[in-house]
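hiii so um. not sure if this is the right channel but i have a protein structure encoded as tokens and i wanna go backwards to a sequence. like what aa goes where. can anyone help
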């Protein structure tokens, strides 16, 4: 999983801990450009993308991921403290698969991983 830098290091660190404890491999990125490079290198099964990132915001990052035929099917989960209808719609317009509002719970984060990452991993192991 690629988890780009977000506007709260505490939330980012908590998410990393929750995911690692659940057995996920987590790759952190500093910003949208770093995330794009790491996505190409690691080919994650799911990508968490914070909306508020330096240099390249989450909407732009998600759009670039989804325009790449190699990663178009990779789930992108947008993360934001903004919970408005416009924010969610904009996320959908750039191709995000789900939108989690911060702060999120451990359960909601892991449920999202189970929904998007595990079915693909199960299929590839059979």
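sure thing!! here u go:
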């Amino acid at each position: 999983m690629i988890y780009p830098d977000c506007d709260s290091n505490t939330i980012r660190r908590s998410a990393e801990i929750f995911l690692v404890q659940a057995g996920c491999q987590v790759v952190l990125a500093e910003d949208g450009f770093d995330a794009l490079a790491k996505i190409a290198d690691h080919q994650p099964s799911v990508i968490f993308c914070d909306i508020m990132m330096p240099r390249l915001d989450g909407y732009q990052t998600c759009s670039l991921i989804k325009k790449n035929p190699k990663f178009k099917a990779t789930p992108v989960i947008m993360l934001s403290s903004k919970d408005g209808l416009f924010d969610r719609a904009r996320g959908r317009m750039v191709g995000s698969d789900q939108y989690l509002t911060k702060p999120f719970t451990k359960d909601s984060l892991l449920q999202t991983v189970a929904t998007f990452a595990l079915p693909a991993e199960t299929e590839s192991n059979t």
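oh and The chain is about 50% helix and 15% strand.
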